[in-house]
TrEMBL record:
<dbReference type="GO" id="GO:0000166">
    <property type="term" value="F:nucleotide binding"/>
</dbReference>
<dbReference type="InterPro" id="IPR036291">
    <property type="entry name" value="NAD(P)-bd_dom_sf"/>
</dbReference>
<comment type="similarity">
    <text>Belongs to the Gfo/Idh/MocA family.</text>
</comment>
<dbReference type="InterPro" id="IPR004104">
    <property type="entry name" value="Gfo/Idh/MocA-like_OxRdtase_C"/>
</dbReference>
<dbReference type="InterPro" id="IPR051450">
    <property type="entry name" value="Gfo/Idh/MocA_Oxidoreductases"/>
</dbReference>
<dbReference type="InterPro" id="IPR000683">
    <property type="entry name" value="Gfo/Idh/MocA-like_OxRdtase_N"/>
</dbReference>
<feature type="domain" description="Gfo/Idh/MocA-like oxidoreductase C-terminal">
    <location>
        <begin position="140"/>
        <end position="368"/>
    </location>
</feature>
<dbReference type="Pfam" id="PF02894">
    <property type="entry name" value="GFO_IDH_MocA_C"/>
</dbReference>
<feature type="domain" description="Gfo/Idh/MocA-like oxidoreductase N-terminal">
    <location>
        <begin position="5"/>
        <end position="126"/>
    </location>
</feature>
<protein>
    <submittedName>
        <fullName>Oxidoreductase</fullName>
    </submittedName>
</protein>
<dbReference type="Pfam" id="PF01408">
    <property type="entry name" value="GFO_IDH_MocA"/>
</dbReference>
Length: 423
């Protein structure tokens, strides 16, 4: 079988490090033939890694998508607010599209993207990579077999981890919801989606509370400068001091904002980018903790809690059924299934995953290629049509949070955007 050709639009962390490398590992299945990114270093790195000619490297998606179709697939990993236009254009041109989540921070755009994929008969898969992990797919299978009976409730905790919170959501690309998207959409649409996936039925109502409690100017230590390297008086006490962190245990995170990984290169970046700013004096406004309550069509419920104040980065789940219970921690890479009748507990341990997100990053690309070959025979497990419901849950949760926990009916919420009642 001949390898499918793909263009990469957006060569940041997710595009260049999560999805495109599949072509390096399986060149018989996928080939990157062009790249678009405004950043010279990122674009040139892809050029070298995938042996591209200069005329296959573009500074913008508009340039890349001019002059006719160049491949079978468009992998789109631009920033959240710049997903809509290249996705619509690529679908219209006949590309199958693998799109990083979230689809868009605008509900109306999400609805239009799903409709456009259907109109042009193209595969639009959203990168809800958790669905493609052995951890969550096994949980889905256990429930489908009826091992724990009917699911009554789900509790899912997303432990963001305190330094991941500071790096990505205080200093980083997703710190400001006007520039990217709200936390519940950017980070936790994975969680809305996986609850939707595991429950396997329609969420009808949702409510939410949360806030930006800690990373605020009023919590700034006395005398702390705007930038950590400008002589902070609490350098040795503050866990978020940029110099101590990024030149020490956080050096791996530093590789995400500078191509020069030497001490001098990191220091230069800390003096010039937002990653060197005091976490209490940054341009951040996304929540640092949030809870969401959900009611499903048969009366089952789910609760979700996201917190940036945790010591480890993981997801922990408890699924309570009428005949048994499932518990799992993604960091431990295993689940337990308990039977109420026999009082027996089964432990299912998974092999070490290959690639990020518990193996989901690698598996979604492989499945996407398979879905294209069999397009029309069965729906992708994270198609735009499937993903749209998960996005609406996230949008409705944010709407509820901003309105003091008001209960939102998902169907009414969808109709308001679909009919134009909400612009």
């Amino acid at each position: 079988m001949q390898a499918k050709k793909a263009v990469l639009i957006g060569a940041g962390d997710r595009g260049a490090r999560a999805y495109a490398p599949y072509a390096l590992n399986y060149p018989n299945e996928l080939q990157i033939v062009a790249v678009a990114d405004p950043n010279d270093e990122r674009r040139n790195r892809v050029k070298v890694e995938y042996e591209l000619e200069e005329d296959a490297c573009y500074t913008s998606w508009e340039e890349l998508l001019q002059g006719g179709k160049k491949a079978d697939i468009a992998i789109i990993c631009t920033l959240d607010r710049f997903h809509y236009e290249p996705t619509i254009k690529a679908l219209e041109m006949g590309y199958h599209v693998l799109l990083e989540k979230p689809m868009s921070p605008d509900p109306k755009e999400c609805i239009e993207m799903e409709a456009t994929a259907a109109k042009y008969n193209r595969q639009l898969t959203i990168c809800h990579v958790l669905r493609y992990t052995e951890f969550w797919s096994t949980i889905k299978q256990v429930i489908a077999r009826g091992d724990i009976g009917q699911v009554a409730s789900i509790q899912l905790n997303e432990n963001v981890e305190i330094m991941h919170m500071s790096h990505s959501f205080v200093r980083g690309n997703w710190s400001n919801k006007e520039k990217s998207s709200p936390m519940i959409l950017q980070k936790s649409c994975h969680d809305m989606d996986i609850i939707n996936f595991v429950m396997g039925k329609k969420c009808e109502r949702i409510s939410s509370y949360g806030s930006l409690m800690h990373f605020r100017k009023e919590n700034k230590p006395e005398g702390a400068p705007k930038r950590c390297l400008e002589g902070c008086p609490v350098e040795l006490e503050c866990p978020f001091h940029a110099g101590r962190y990024y030149l020490g245990e956080g050096r791996g995170w530093a590789k995400k904002f500078t191509e020069d990984h030497t001490n001098e290169g990191i220091i230069k970046a800390l003096n010039e980018t937002d990653y060197g700013k005091c976490v209490y004096q940054s341009d951040n406004n996304v929540v640092d903790h949030q809870v969401v309550n959900m009611e499903f069509e048969d009366g089952a419920t789910a609760t979700f809690s996201m917190s940036g104040f945790t010591r480890e980065q993981t997801r922990m789940v408890q699924i309570m059924g009428t005949k048994g219970e499932i518990r799992g921690n993604m960091a431990e890479n295993q689940i337990s299934v308990y039977d109420f009748s026999s009082k027996q507990e089964s432990i299912i341990k998974f092999s070490k995953p290959v690639g990020g997100h518990g193996g989901g990053d690698n598996n979604i690309v492989r499945t996407f290629l398979h879905d294209i070959d069999h397009y029309g025979e069965q729906e992708s497990i994270s198609s735009a049509a499937t993903s749209l419901r998960s996005h609406l849950m996230a949008f409705a949760a944010e709407e509820s949070r901003l309105n003091h926990g008001q209960s939102i009916h998902i169907d009414d919420f969808y109709s308001a955007y679909a009919t134009g009642a909400i612009k």
